[in-house]
Amino acid sequence: MDEVFLKGMEFFGRHGVMPEEQVLGQRFVVHMRMEGDYRAASESDELAEAVDYARVFERVRERVEGPPVRLLERLAALIAQDVLTDWPAVARVSVQVDKPGAPIAGVFATAGVRVSRTRTD
Description:
elongated
């Protein structure tokens, strides 16, 4: 299984359970792994045969900067669904969404979730 990945994609979004999170917004960091059989791209050397990670980045941006959801689980699942729908060569996707500014009373680096989805889910 081959893998294409994007790490540390940063966007401003308005997701969260607390009403002020959806008003004020905050930074979200997304990491993604997309697994599949990418031999066609490796043999042809053509972008049309590959998972175009610039287009994936833009699709993730649309989702994170778009309409708010309450839970990170929902946001990550929607991103995974987008990738599986838009890129048929991807057989499995893992999406991690970090929320460094999560409303937690304490010192922490980030809070987040990771979901994995396959084409057969």
